[in-house]
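Tutorial handout. Part one gives the primary structure; part two gives the three-dimensional structure as tokens.
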Amino acid sequence: PPPTDDIDGTMSIIKQADRLEANAGDTVTYTITVRNDTNVTMRNLQVTDSYSPGQVTIMDADGASLSSGTMSWSIPSLNAGQTRVLRYRGRLSTGLRHGDVVRNTAQLTGGELPGPLTSSNEIRIIQHLPQTGELFADRGLRGVQVGRRDRHTASVKDRVEHPQQVEIQMV
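Part two.
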């Protein structure tokens, strides 16, 4: 290998997910891009991606070896100007709750790199509630009263801001 003083340019690693927000139980596709923008061939590169097995189940590892929350890929050589793209899919745990954050970090080591390069990704868990088409009002701030039937009037504005009175019956 050439001395590191003779290397011009940079190596990079970029970790991305196909979305920034997801529901618990969703499948997410992750992409790790390793790019050699130097003037030399880099050899014996190692890509690792750390994740929490309690949050993500790896489904399609794209040739990676899996061990205790770490995926590993070996890149024997990456020519100057060459890019290697790694993709895998993971299913988010159904035990995740609204507001939880799933974070994992990819790291590139080896070759003539002076130190590790890292790239992280976060996915925020959101909870979409099913839409039932019903509207509930709580004008008295009493909450839903079991065994009571209440009638309330509320003002609703449509898209062009025309106020309408609607009657809401809590059953």
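Part three, for discussion. Residues 144-148, 154-163 have pLDDT under 50 and may be disordered. DSSP finds no helices and twelve strands in the chain.
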